[in-house]
Each structure stands twice: as C-alpha cells, then as structure tokens.
Structures
1.
Amino acid sequence: MDFGTTRHLPHNTEAEQAVLGAMMRGAEQLEDIKIRLKAQDFHHVQHQLMYEAMLSLVDRQMAVDSTTLTAHLYDYGRLEEIGGAPYILAVFESVTTLAHTEHYVNLVLEKSTARKVIERAQLLIEQGYNPDMPIDQLLEEAKRHFSSLEGDAQNEDFRTLADVLKDYIANLERLSQQTGEITGLHTGFDAFDKKTAGLQNGSLVIVAARPAMGKTVFAINIAVNAARLNRINVAIFNLEMGAEEVVGRILSSEGRIDFSKLKTGTLDADDWRSLKIATDSLSQVGVFLDDTSRKVTQIIAKCRVLHRQQGLGLIVIDYLQLMEGSRGAGGNRQLEISEMSRALKLLARELNVPIVAVAQLSRSVESREDKRPIMSDLRESGSIEQDADIVTFLLREDYYRPPEEPKDNMVEVIFAKHRSGATGSIKLGFRGENARFENVVYVSEGRVPAG
C-alpha cells in the first residue's frame, strides 16, 4: 500500500507492519503486545483498524491470523479501508521471525510518544497566545501535559500506593482551591450540578426514560450548555434523528422559538431576529454532530480521532439501544448491550471525559399504576446499571394526567444510582415547544414556576 511521500508526523510504517504481522503469527506475542499498545499508538488508520479488529477477535476467543482477520473486517464492512485482503496477507508475510518483535513494539511506542509531544506542544502554543490565560496556569498546563507523557512512554501499568497517594493529595489540594462545589463540567442545570458536582471525567452517565419524557432534549441541552459554559468540544452521536433535526432543536432552545414553526418555516419577524441571534451565538460553540455511526466500534474510533485532532471534553450518545455491537454476542441482545455499555465506560476512562448516554425504558412502566421508573425498566439493560456511574430517569407526571387537568411543565430527574453520591431526585422546568429544560425557582407561595 502506498502511504505517500509527503512529510508526516513521526512514525515507522515497517515497525507497525511487523508488530501486526507478529500478532497474526503468535498468540504469545499477541498477548504481550495487547498489554503494551493502544490502537492510537499506530500512526496509520489502516493499522489502527487492523489492531482493533484483532483485539475484537481475542475478546471473542477466536484465533487471530490473516484468514480470520480478513473475514472479520469484511463482515464489518471495513476490509477495503485497510487495502483489502492482499494488504493483510502482505503484512502477514512480511514477518519471517518473531525474535525482533519487542524491538518493533518499542519503535511504535517511541514514534507514538513523539507524536503526542508534537500535538501537546501545538496545544500549548495556542494556549500561550491566549491573553486571558495567566502564566501560572499556562505553566501548570505544560507540566501536566508532559509529565503524563513520561508515564505513557514507560508504559507502566502498576502504580505504587505511594505514587497514587501523592497524586490523590495533589488533586485534593487543587479541588480545595476551587471556588464553589462544582469540580466537573457545568451542565447549566444548577440542581443537577449540585447533586453531581458536575459531570466528572471518566464517568458514564445514563439518562433513561419512556418516549415523550424529553430525554433527547435533555441530553442535547446538556451538550450545548457544557460546550459553552466549560469552553470544551462536545461530540453528539444521534442515532434516531438526522443532524438537521438536532440543530432544529438546538435553535429552538437557544432562540426560544416554537419548534413547530421551525419545522414548517412559519416564522414571524421576531422569530427571525431570535434565529439570527441564536445562530450567531451557536457558531462559537464547539459541538460536533454525527448521525451516521451506529456501530459502537465506529463511535469509539471517531471519538479517538476527534480527541486527538481537536480535543474532546464530553460525549453524548442518543440512544444506547439503537447502537450496534459486535456479532460475538450470538444474537443475544442483552449481552450485546452489556458489551456496548462496558465499551463506553472504558472509552470514558481512556479519553478521561464524561459520556452521557440516553437509554430507552421498557413498556412495563406504562402498565403500572405507579409510573415512577425503576432500574429493571431499562430495556435490554444487560450490565448498564453495573457499568454506569450515574443512572437517571426522567418523569413527567403531568404527561399521564387527563387532558383536562392543568400541566405544570415539570420534569423530575430521578437519581436511581449515584456511585459517588446520594440518590434522590431534582426538579427541572420543561418547555417542550422550545425543546428546552430550565432551572426552577421556588417562590414563597409554594408554587414552582419554570425560571
């Protein structure tokens, strides 16, 4: 395969091929390499795909060789992306001895570290041009970025208790110097942030509800609010609707424009003014939309690339049960959901960002007199409740009331699981016509209007 002759980031194509060839030739080498390398350590996307495919075969307890790898990539529609079966065979045949495998692994790691140095240096250059960043903060960012690289280069899996204690105390001191109680990402919802201390890096948060409860709107609101308030990039993967429909809901919320008007184009002069203001404001927000990826492997790969190229602070997925996992589940949907929730939790830890995943509740909620969701209502739940750090349910009680009764436009966010805090619930206002959740203000008369 021709990788071109133009200047690239540091890499060693032959070393990457030798590592992949060794993995196809020996199970012992495969296990050793699996411990030391991550997919992103390979420079070429083709090699990243091959490596991830081989790890998938290992997870499914299948043999790894040129034949099984070719079949696996073909089944998932990725074979042509890596150059087809001839390239896999060429990589396999390029390795005649396994004696130098460790040397090639070290070369791949060295080039990977060099690329990380360049990427983080470029990020620091951009931060250095920011006149609002204090020099102390810039220096701290430089130390953090490059000290973490030292551990990556050494590829240390074990950490001594003394080292962990040192890091823990340093982080505790950093938190103690912060003003306020929010240590994670601000969501724009005060009660939610107070309950969770913000969305925490490495956490998997499930937002589950029956249809019409507002779960998609809630997730989108969190994404846009987090991007703006924390000045981060957010990736939204929407498997149920197109990107244009998602943008319609974002504009409705931002401009407080009736969503039905946006669907029909029946906007008045005030609506057009609001739309212009909303569009100008949103153009500065770092939100990336994807409405084409359904396979969990595709979502993971795209998040890794976006994180490497742009920086990523939050991932939102709507919704979990529409995702497709591996075929290793043998048609068992519950097992497939379990694999996907576990993969998302591992991705959150790998990228050190929160992931908010929307989930659908089963119809059993509708058949009960008490409509409050419980954990067993998670459809095809698998191990969602085990993998998630937070599981929330949305409940609009007025949705179940007779039409003649007044609506209070309130949504209860029920914390059914909270690994680092208390369970319980909070209330938010819901403006369905504007695709918008809002904080509530409690007044002395006892009424709770949307604020």
Note: The radius of gyration is 24 Å.
2.
Amino acid sequence: MVTTESVTIKVPVGMSKYLMAMDSETELIRNALLLYPYILNKTISHGGAAEILGIRKSKLIDIYDKLGYSYLDMTMDELDLELETFRQLKKREAAK
C-alpha cells in the first residue's frame, strides 16, 4: 500500500465534478496521467513513476499503452538504426 497525502490543485470549475469519489483503478490512472509530463520531459523515469505509484513498471507502461501513450517513442527507421548499432557492437565483442 502506498502512503498518500492530499494536495490542492486548481482546475476549471467544470472539471471538479470528475475528480470526486473515484474508484482505486480510476485514481491510479489519474495519478499516472499527472506524472506523465514529467516522464516526457525526463524529470522522472517510468520506473521512478511506477515506484511512486506503488506498481510495477510493466503495469504503468500497460496503463499508458491502453491510453495510447507509447513506451517507445522511436520511429521504425530509428529502431532499425539502433538494432544495427547493437548488432555491430555485438560482432566487435565476439571478435575480441
């Protein structure tokens, strides 16, 4: 169980009714979404956010995936380049 505390945030009036009386799963998703900008700007990692939320990193990644936020932010070309670099490094290691 994660220790929690109450904080006050300013939200538009029409939004407040959606923040009252949430079930635990909805609250978890809301809190994950509150942390997401800090993951994007690299203030915190997925693992760090998951630790704060008291869940496994894989569960947090799954939550974001279901909401349409991809864990991998690479294009296929970038991923292919990364894989080729990895293969070249592996060949060099094997040659030693």
Note: The mean pLDDT is 90.
3.
Amino acid sequence: MELNLAPAAASRMLTDLEQSVGEALLNRRKRPMTGTLKGDALFDVVAPIVENFERFCTENLSVAGASASAGPADDRYVISISAYQGYGHECLPPLLQEYMKIHPNVSFSLYKEKSIADVERGEVDVLVTASDVQRPGLWREDTRLLPCILACSPDYLRRYGTPESPEDLAHHIGLERIGENFPVSRGHLYRNRQSHQARFGQTIYSEDSIGLRDSAVAGIGIVFDLPAEFMLTEILRGELVQVLRGWHRQPFQRSVLVQKEKMKTRPEIAAFAHWLVRREREASFEREFKVFSVLGEEPKNYLR
C-alpha cells in the first residue's frame, strides 16, 4: 500500500528476491505471514541501509542550497532530464510528478532525445537511455531489462494474414526503431535462444517510437523494436495483438546516466537519480506485469 503496488506485483518482486537469495524469506503458510530465519536476518541488515539512505536524501534535499538554475537566496532548483522517445513522453512524466509532490522545491526541465555527449558536457543533468553505455566520466545505474514482442493490429492480420514463423515475415511490412538512445537489434530469439534474423519484405525505419506504435495500430505493419510495456494501453484496448508468440528481439537495459562530477557536487541531482532508479524498477515491473498478464505469457521467456 505504501508503494502503491498491486499485491500480485509485490508477490512477484518478493519471489525474484528469494530466487536471488536462494532461500524462502517468508513463511507463507502462517497467518499472518512471518519471516524465515534468513528473511529476518536479511531484513535486519537491509532495513537500516534503506532508512539511512532515505534520511540522507531528505536532509540533503532540504539543505542542498542554490543550483545553477536558481539564485543564491533561492532554495528552489531545477533538474534537467531527457529520455528516449516513448518512455520520455509517457512513463517518465508521472514519476516526475510523484517526485515533485514529495519535494515541492524541485522543478524539472524535460528535454527530447538529448544525447550521451550532452550528459558528458553537462548540458543535461540526467539521461534515461536504452543504449549500453560505459563511459569513465558517467555514473550509470540500470533499472530493468525490458522485454519486447512483435505486435500488429487485428485489421493488419485480416488483410495480410498471420505469420506462423520468422520466414513468413518476408511477406510482411516491418516497423523498426532507430536512434542513438535506442539499441537496434535485428536478431530474433525464441524462448531465449538465438535463432533467425528478422527479414521483413519491406521495412519502415523511424526514430519516432510513438509514430511506429501508431502506425502499427493503423494497420501499416508489424512493430518489432518496441518494449512490450510501451504498447500496454493499446494491447489492453485490443488495438494491438501479439504475433509469433514466443519470438522476440534481444531485450535491452534501461539505464540512468549522470555526470560523475554532478553526482559529487550536486546532492539534489544525486538524490533524485538514486530515487528514480529505485522507483522506476518498481514502475516498470508493474507495467510489465500488466501487459504479460493480458498476453498470458511469462516475461522471463523474453528477457535473454
């Protein structure tokens, strides 16, 4: 309730944690549930870390002082942030709103598709990217590995037929994403095993994620390069359906990038970056859980 998580999502996160630890952390047969010996031991270690971190963030945000965007007597400040299209338009703004409710002295400048070089030069404070970036001057924290599916409109299938195998894609139009902050992958996998290359008969390439999704809804082709969560609303409405069940492109990692120097000298940016990573892990899990519940699929089958 405190994190606004659905019970099923919270249960799935706990299961993931237990798999990482290698032991059960809760006695589920008892009511109310109690911690196992390992669960209690883990809680005793982790709880103080979480509490101290949240206290650190709160104290540093309240005394952070003026930023480059505020006057010397002003305790308000602005954090500039950019993200790849799609995520930046739909998933990120609600999180920024949530953060501003917690910290009313924070404002954000949200930019469209800034580059990694812009972060290195300090022209944008925070970048959310799907590119695999390792730069010595940048702090990077991964949020979640994003599964992708192939999808198109029911109308497209009625007009052009349903592909039964990757070879059938040679008779279809593909809709594929390109761009600096979005990794392009032409490899198709089945149940996490490398298999075919995606070879559409014709392809529309675009840097516009929203345009590709809208084109798929309009019945123009089969979208290949977008994460499943970005099509959640359209799948719930029945405007998009999955094709080639079990087949997918290589998943990619969503990451948060900040200049290391700013992480040291701008406590308000460091506090927000850590919060964003933690909160986005929860939010992306919720989106993923919803879409794969509708599809009747296991996300783990699309994550390698």
Note: The two ends are 31 Å apart (CA to CA).
4.
Amino acid sequence: MKRIALVLLAFVLVSCAHKPQKISYSGITQGSYFSITYYDEEGRTFEAAFDSIFREVDNSVSLWNENSIIRKVNRNEDVVVNQIFKDNFEWARKASEFSDGAFDATIGPLVSAWGFHYKKELEMTPEMVDSIRQLVDYRKIEIVDDKVVKANPNMTLDFNAVAQGYTTDIIGTFLETKGIYNYLVDVGGEIFAKGTKPNGELWTIGIEKPAENFDSERSVQIKIQLKDKGIVTSGNYRKYIEKDGVRYSHSIDPRTGYPVEQNLLSATVIADNASWADCLATICMLVGKGKASKLLEDQGVEAYFIFVEDGVIHSEWWGH
C-alpha cells in the first residue's frame, strides 16, 4: 500500500509540475502599448528577449528613433538595411500592388503637408497637392544590394501601417521557437491569438466601438473568439483634423493626394497573420466598404465593418 501511495503521490507531483503557468508581460513600445500573455509548463519568462525584439524593430523602422535605419534612409544617408527593414518594405510593396496603389509607404510628404496646413489654418491648393504627389509613388523606390534606391532623393518611407502587426508576428514566432503554442500578443492593437487557454477556452478579443471624439472613453462594440489568427482594426474616428466644423480623415489617398471621403468608420480584418491583417485594415479604410469587399474576396480573410448610412451607425460581418 505504501508503494502505491508513493507512486500516486509522485504522479500528483509530476502532474502539478507540468501544469501550464500563465505568464504576462506588458509595457510601452513604438509609441503605444504592448501586452503578451502565454502559457508555459516551465514557467519561463522572456522579458529580456521581448525587449530586445522591440529594440531591433525600433532601431530599424521607427520614425520616432532619430538613429533608426528608416530615418537614415529618409535623410539619404549611406546605410545598409537589415532583414527587419526588408520585411516591412516587402509587406508594404505587396499591399501597394494588391490595392493598386491605395496603400503606399511613400505617403509621408502628403500626410505631413495636410496635417501641417490644417493645423496652421492654411489652404492646400491643387497646385500644392500635385507638386507633393511627385514624391509619392511606391514604384519609384526599391532595395538594391541591401540599399534603398530612390527616383527622387526627397522621397521618404513610412511603415507605420505594417510595423506593429509585423512586431506582433515576430514576437509570436519567437514564442513558438521556445515550444510555446498558446499565446496572445497585442502590440498597439495589432493582435495574434495562438492556440487556446489550458481549459480549451478560445481567446476573447474586443472590437472597439467608434468614438464620437478622439478623446472619448473607449468601449467595446462586439467581442469575438479567436484561434490561430491575426486581427487588426483600423479606424478614422480618433484620427482626424477638424476645420470649420468639417472632419478630414487622417487617411490620404496617394492616388489623388486628398483625404478620403467615405462612410466607413472602422474596418477589422482577421487574417492568417497580423502583418497582412494590418495592411488590409488600412486598405479598407482607404478604399471604402464597397471596394474593400471586392478586394478581400480571394484573400481567405474575414472583416467586420462599422459604417454610417443615412446618419445611422451600422455594422456588418464580411466573409464570416
């Protein structure tokens, strides 16, 4: 009997030792927040590794880092780009080609001009828009022998519409190299949910309700359950410029040079990775609900649109 009791006790101890432990880590990165939650039987913590990944991305593609590779590229310094930069460049190019130029990582000069002029109460004339548009065209910039080549030295790059989704993905990839396949990574709202919780419960994600103003309190429009997918929401309701009672979207169409005018308040895209979901959500906000639905047809994704029709806010699942 004693031997049986010892065997049972040993079994209980082993079982307890291998019970997955919930590990959480959060903080600030890339001008926003991050939150990482995962389950690990060994209870390992990877804060140093996560911080290193955030630093590498920041040093490569952050516009807020004076010494980042992208800032040096934009200043036309002689710099060799790394894999992180090349990955973001390729995601951006893929999104540009897919959207027929609606997505364009060279949009920076137009965004800056519109923001500056409205804040200073100046007018953007058609002549000014046409002049600045000469600096915006993804087809006129490429990477050759690990260096960026521009058709015009005044062209600049901006990977803000993919960098956070990309960061989410590489954090997830790191966890999987450690044998961890049940996690939720959120970098600035760009999310990837892998596996489940120990009890088999799926990860629950909240989609934000469009706010009346940029500083309105955040609330949830709808909650969904997710597994092995990336999810990203892009919206214009908190990012706009207001002048004479008119709100101008922060989304500029590089093909026209003007802020987009459409009734889509937010677009949430669920895809196989956060990088592509990030790109697609941005594209949806640029082209509007109707064109977005057609573009997404063969992408194997789902989308949740919140839009205004006849003064009333509606929501609609696409591909669900």
Note: The helical segments are 2-17, 47-61, 69-74, 83-98, 108-119, 126-133, 163-177, 274-295.
